[in-house]
Every structure is written in structure tokens, then in C-alpha cells.
Design goal:
alpha+beta, 8 strands, single chain
């Protein structure tokens, strides 16, 4: 089973719902594209939260962005700025966990998600375990760029 246009739309809805549920503005989405592992430019920013997916589907999801986006989220959620790197790491983990968890409505109860992991820094290579084909969904929230990366079978 491959990811479908309907699946991508459902993921866009989950991302949109996440940002609006915390009182933020709706994200603006770019055109999703297929990730070619051989391409020179990887789609990662400074902070990347990864969720492994098993059960009825196999693969994973990554949400990747810069510190400014996460700081903006923390400002909304906590009512003040992030004071520690730990706050930033917890927020990106919580974001990817919530979005992947909400995707279960579309993919079904057999859509099992792992505990999130976070990578800080921009690695030289894209090394997350994702099924192919892998799609990158670029989006902008509050003027800050990010990517949702999904690879499912």
C-alpha cells in the first residue's frame, strides 16, 4: 500500500488542526514533492522531530523547522518565551507526537506510533528511517518555514 493523495490531504488537515488548536494562525502549505535520497539538498532544518510508525502502516514522519517557529509555539502555549534548549526539544517532540497521533483518525487504530525522537542540528545526510516513496510537505507558519516529511507503506 502506498501513500495516496487522500493520505497527504489528511496529514495537511492534522498539521493545520495542530496550529489552530493552540490558538495560532493556519499554516500555509507549499506543493508536496517526492524526496529523492540522491538529491544534494536535504529538507531538514535545525530541529527535527521523528515518529516511527508500525502496525497497519510502516514508516515514519518528521516535522523539521528552525528555532524561531518553535519559540513562537512556546510563546502561545506557555505565554512567555522559551528559556531553555530543553523547552525547544520538548516542544518539537510534542508537535510531531500530536500530529502523528491525530493522523490515527484517518489511518485507523492500527496506526501505531513510537515515542518521538529529536535531532538537533542539520545533518550532512538524511538518515531517518522512512518508507518509500517519501513525501516532503513544505509549510510556513507565522512567517517561519518548516517541512513535514512522511514515508508510509
Amino acid at each position: 500500500m502506498r501513500i495516496t493523495a487522500e493520505d497527504v490531504t489528511a496529514l495537511l488537515d492534522c498539521i493545520r488542526a495542530y496550529f489552530t488548536s493552540i490558538g495560532g494562525q493556519k499554516p500555509e502549505f507549499g506543493v508536496p514533492y517526492s524526496l529523492d535520497a540522491r538529491q544534494q539538498r536535504h529538507p531538514l532544518y535545525t530541529y527535527s522531530g521523528h515518529i516511527g510508525i508500525s502496525g497497519s502502516h510502516r514508516g515514519g514522519m518528521v516535522i523539521t523547522c528552525d528555532k524561531d517557529l518553535i519559540s513562537g509555539l512556546l510563546q502561545l502555549v506557555l505565554g512567555g518565551p522559551a528559556v531553555a534548549e530543553e523547552d525547544i526539544i520538548h516542544m518539537i517532540a510534542e508537535m510531531v507526537n500530536t500530529i502523528a497521533g491525530n493522523a490515527r483518525v484517518h489511518f485507523g487504530s492500527g496506526f501505531d506510533i513510537s515515542v518521538p525522537t529529536v535531532v538537533v542540528g542539520e545533518p550532512e545526510e538524511f538518515k531517518f528511517v522512512l518508507a518509500e516513496p517519501t513525501f516532503v510537505i513544505p509549510f510556513t507558519w507565522s512567517g517561519h518555514r518548516a517541512n513535514a516529511i512522511i514515508g508510509l507503506t
